[in-house]
């Protein structure tokens, strides 16, 4: 009997015949924490009397969630992490170094890896065929010390894609459709595995967007096979030697299969306050927005800024709508400068944040006031997440966000030139 | 055996309800952080929770972030266990890693304020207010052993490694 991607990767890394439902102990190829989960990770590491890291060069800390620090308390947490990195020799990406998931994608993850991060969106690296999942600080502290963890091998739901995206419809609309259909707990404890002919039209950025939001359906991992798109991406990152082809067996057993024709999708929006509260952008016409945020680990990549710049070129944001742009990494920022996108976005009235998580979690760089509404390209719209619990967060693609910044209300991007 | 009063919540109580991201700067000041526990879901929670209180929730409790501070502040508030129809994966693991039991059962049969008795070994919850008895599902052995040690760090200190 064949294996799913999750079963294959966990079999190799545990040295056993891993099947869904089994509990295995697997080697972890990369482990990391960020500035909101890292301090507790360090404390738990010390509480367990651990002295050294199992693999310093496979252990990373990222200062991205509130960076540069907006508050003294955060500064102290940053200092704690810098001192830990210095003492243990682990990798550290300091302020402006980019969002952890984007750096993992660009520089660290390989197909077939097991990756654990103290951040729920660690699933992003599933876009290039890594079994990547989020855990809390205690679990991550133990991986820091032992280089391994226990895993329940998940059941897998296969998502069979066909067709091609229509104009101004993309990966965000696909994943919102999926979460809207199966619900915010539709894949709890399970893996989502993407396949089918439609896969060929998803570039690497699209795959990261989709994998990133697997956790918004409760999934433990969102997995893509490693194919020529993956190889091309790793080559472009000068990491071609990390490539290995990876696919599920043709006789793998899935819990069920969901088919989605990409051509049937249209621009979608998740309404407050849950990600599965999905509606079409056109049905929300007239919903006024005071802030548009284009960025995050979901949609802060070069391809996303290209879409936003194409729509905003020569246009101006609505006077009552702030436009905040957060490139996900220094590489994204530099590429967007070279391509002229940053100039276009600033000329359209946008403000550019340093590479990092930006306004996503309500700590700084775009905190919402009582009664305000934000259209964001992030992955979560929970009550209170971006500031006031009396604020409203809608989630969309960069195309929908850019079009809506011009009109000042939620707008189907196919309706603007 | 655990005893306490039911504190009822609905579906999809997220980690942002439990401890909003806007308080992330307080994460190294747990006592201050704990004052805000669950305030976006029930602003009275921190004042009405008593030692031993039991959270009784609907589906998908704890969805969202990996922040272990979420179960940590719930535990600090005095909560002795969480009952839910279903629970998000990372939250589940985090709670057990802190020695806080999370048990899956049909919580529709429990009302806010009911007195509950939980027998972990028997896998049973008794609602002594209405007389109902509920059973909860078994968790994997490794989680049960971690819970029995009072959390993951004490477990690793005792065994030095994971034991299957």
In short, what is this structure?
The complex is a heterodimer of chains A (417) and B (164). Chain A has 13 helices and 18 strands. Chain A has 417 residues and is an alpha/beta fold.
Helix count of chain A equals 13
Question: Going across the major beta sheet of chain B, what is the strand order?
Answer: 4-3-2-1-5-6-7
Compute the CA-based radius of gyration of chain B.
15 Å
The whole-number mean of residue pLDDT values of chain B reads 95
Q: At the third CATH level, what is the topology name of the largest domain in chain A?
A: Aconitase, domain 3
Largest interface: A-B, 57 and 43 residues
Shape of chain B: globular
The counted number of beta strands of chain A is 18
Number of strands of chain B: 7
Global outline of chain A: globular
CATH superfamily of the largest domain in chain A: Aconitase, domain 3
* Strands in their spatial order, largest beta sheet of chain A: 4-3-2-5-6
Any idea what the radius of gyration of chain A is? Answer: 20 Å
Structural write-up:
The complex is a heterodimer of chains A (417) and B (164). Chain A is α/β, with parallel strands linked by helices. Chain A is 30% helix and 19% strand. Chain A has two domains: 5-261, Aconitase, domain 3 (2-Layer Sandwich); 269-411, Aconitase, domain 3, CATH 3.30.499. Chain A has helices spanning 5-14, 38-47, 72-88, 100-108, 137-146, 171-182, 204-212, 228-236, 296-299, 302-312, 330-338, 341-347, 398-407; strands at 23-27, 30-34, 59-62, 91-93, 114-118, 131-134, 148-152, 156-162, 191-195, 221-223, 256-261, 268-270, 278-280, 291-295, 322-326, 350-352, 373-376, 392-395. Chain A starts with a helix and ends in a 10-residue tail after the last helix. Chain B starts with a strand and ends in a 5-residue tail after the last helix. In chain B, helix 4 links the parallel strand 2 (54-57) and strand 3 (81-84). The model of chain B has no long low-confidence stretch (mean pLDDT 95). Chain B has a seven-stranded mixed sheet with strand order 4-3-2-1-5-6-7. By secondary structure, chain B is of the alpha/beta class. The chains are: A alpha/beta (417), B alpha/beta (164). At the A-B interface, helix 2, helix 3, helix 5 and strand 7 of A face helix 5 and helix 7 of B.
């Amino acid at each position: 009997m064949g294996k799913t991607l999750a079963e294959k990767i966990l079999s190799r890394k545990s040295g056993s015949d891993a099947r869904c439902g089994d509990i295995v102990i697997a080697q972890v190829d990369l482990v990391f924490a960020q500035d909101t989960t890292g301090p507790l990770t360090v404390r738990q590491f010390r509480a367990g009397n651990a002295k050294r890291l199992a693999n310093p060069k496979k252990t990373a800390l990222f200062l991205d969630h509130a960076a540069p620090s907006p508050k003294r308390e955060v500064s102290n947490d940053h200092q704690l992490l810098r001192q830990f990195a210095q003492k243990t020799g682990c990798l550290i990406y300091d302020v402006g170094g980019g969002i952890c998931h984007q750096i993992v994608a660009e520089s660290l993850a390989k197909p077939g890896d097991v990756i654990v991060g103290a951040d729920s969106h660690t699933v992003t690296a599933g876009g290039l065929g890594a079994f990547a999942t989020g855990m809390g600080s205690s679990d991550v502290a133990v991986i820091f010390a032992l280089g391994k963890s226990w895993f329940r091998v998940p059941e897998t739901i296969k998502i069979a894609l066909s067709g091609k995206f229509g104009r101004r419809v993309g990966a965000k609309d696909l994943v919102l459709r999926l979460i809207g259909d199966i619900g915010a707990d539709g894949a709890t404890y399970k893996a989502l595995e993407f396949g089918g002919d439609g896969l060929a039209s998803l570039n690497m950025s699209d795959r990261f967007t989709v994998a990133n939001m697997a956790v918004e359906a409760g999934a433990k991992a969102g997995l893509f096979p490693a194919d020529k798109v993956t190889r091309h991406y790793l080559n472009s990152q000068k990491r071609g030697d990390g490539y290995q082809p990876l696919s599920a067996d043709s006789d793998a057993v899935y819990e069920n299969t969901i088919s989605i024709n990409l051509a049937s999708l249209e621009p979608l929006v998740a309404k407050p306050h849950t990600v599965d509260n999905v509606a079409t952008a056109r049905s929300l016409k007239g919903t006024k927005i005071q802030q548009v945020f284009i960025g995050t680990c979901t949609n802060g990549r070069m391809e996303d800024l290209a879409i936003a710049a194409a729509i905003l070129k020569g246009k101006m944001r609505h006077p009552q709508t702030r436009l905040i742009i957060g490139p996900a990494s220094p590489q994204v920022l530099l590429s967007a400068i070279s391509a002229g996108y940053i100039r276009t976005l600033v000329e359209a009235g946008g403000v550019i944040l340093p590479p990092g998580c930006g306004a996503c979690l309500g700590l700084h760089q775009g905190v919402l006031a009582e009664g305000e509404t934000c259209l964001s390209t992030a992955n979560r719209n929970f009550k209170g997440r971006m500031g006031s619990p009396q604020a409203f967060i809608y989630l969309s693609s960069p195309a929908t966000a850019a079009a809506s910044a011009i009109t000042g209300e939620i707008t189907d991007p196919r309706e603007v030139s | 055996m655990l005893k306490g009063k039911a504190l009822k919540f609905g579906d999809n109580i997220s980690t942002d309800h439990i401890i909003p991201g806007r308080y992330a700067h307080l994460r190294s000041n747990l006592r201050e952080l704990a004052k805000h526990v669950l305030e976006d879901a029930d602003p009275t929670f921190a004042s009405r929770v008593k030692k031993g209180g039991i959270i009784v929730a609907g589906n998908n409790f704890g969805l969202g972030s990996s922040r272990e501070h979420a179960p940590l502040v719930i535990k600090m508030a005095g909560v002795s266990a969480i009952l839910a129809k279903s629970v998000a994966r990372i939250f589940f693991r985090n709670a057990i890693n802190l020695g806080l039991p999370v048990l899956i059962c049909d919580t529709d049969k429990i009302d806010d304020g009911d007195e509950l008795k939980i027998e972990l070994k028997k896998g049973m919850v008794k609602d002594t207010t209405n007389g109902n008895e509920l059973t909860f599902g078994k968790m994997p052995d490794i989680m049960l052993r971690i819970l029995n040690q009072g959390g993951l760090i004490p477990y690793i200190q005792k065994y030095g490694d994971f034991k299957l």
